[in-house]
Amino acid sequence: METELRSVPLTGGLQWAWFSRPVGHLLRVTTTEAIRLLEKFRAGGVGRDAVLREFQAAPVADLGFAQVDMHRALRKGFPEVIFGAGKSPDQVLRIASKLLEKEQRILITRITDEHAKLLRRKFKFAVHHPLARCVTMDKKPLPKRPGAIAVVCAGTSDLPVAEEAAVTAETMGNRVERITDVGVSGLHRLFRRLESIQSANVIIVLAGMEGALPSVVAGLVSKPVIAVPTSVGYGASFGGLAALLGMLNSCGSGVTVVNIDNGFGAAYAASLINSLAEG
């Protein structure tokens, strides 16, 4: 026997508990996922056979070296994203192949040229974004949401992280406005693009060095600002720590901060916010 963690309805809301199950028995869809799927079926958004396949499929694919979450898109609206760093090209390929058995699109971040070559050899529709260090595979691109996400970076050296954010946001169905090299050492450059920044629903601001740009932008807009410290800078920047601490201590209202160089995390959060703006 093995055990699995399930949610069970109890007084005061759902609670989690461990249940025994026979080895090899497939984990089924959760109650929440089943309700969503049935509602989609009733609305004509999915066929009967597709519903049956979902009920019969395991939400986790065991590859030995990885437990692939096959129901991430059901719960989150987007499939599991593959973090390529630390994984071999073959491991990334096998995870991607498993996800593509049921998903229309996937995103792989922090990849090397070796990862990209193997993926493109296997999947002709794979797109390598060298600057972003990402690979996207999109069998059926998502329609773009109304409203845009602005990706604003302080310097050209911040572009790898900025592009990771931009590619992530675009793959998740958002229009992206890229605004580059508008750091605080030349604020006149920022003011030239202010109209575009103010018209976005969410603004991702990336900066290294002292990390001052998000505070400046936050004082000029009425939209959420997601600050991304980058590891760009000289010795006392401590690999982005100085920018991180500066952003965490921002005097600008409406600023939230993600981890150093985490363009992906910023874009994922921005996409969720932008989806709420759809109404």
What this model shows, in words?
The chain is built from eleven helices and 13 strands. The strands form four sheets. It has a five-stranded parallel beta sheet. The protein has 279 residues and is of the alpha/beta class. It folds into three domains: 23-58, no CATH class; 60-141, no CATH class; 148-277, 3-Layer(aba) Sandwich (Rossmann fold), CATH 3.40.50.1970. The protein is 36% helix and 24% strand. The longest helix has 15 residues, at 263-277.
Features:
single chain; 279 residues; Rossmann fold; 3 domains; disordered N terminus
Distance between the termini: 46 Å
Largest sheet: 5 strands, parallel
| Strand arrangement in the largest pleated sheet | 10-9-11-12-13
Instruction: Give me the CATH fold name of the largest domain.
Output: Rossmann fold
Short recap of the structure:
The chain is α/β, with parallel strands linked by helices and 279 residues long. The protein has helices spanning 31-42, 48-56, 72-76, 89-99, 113-122, 159-171, 187-192, 194-199, 213-218, 241-248, 263-277; strands at residues 2-10, 13-21, 60-62, 67-69, 82-83, 105-109, 126-129, 134-138, 148-153, 175-180, 202-207, 225-229, 255-257. The chain has 3 domains: 23-58, no CATH class; 60-141, no CATH class; 148-277, Rossmann fold, CATH 3.40.50.1970.
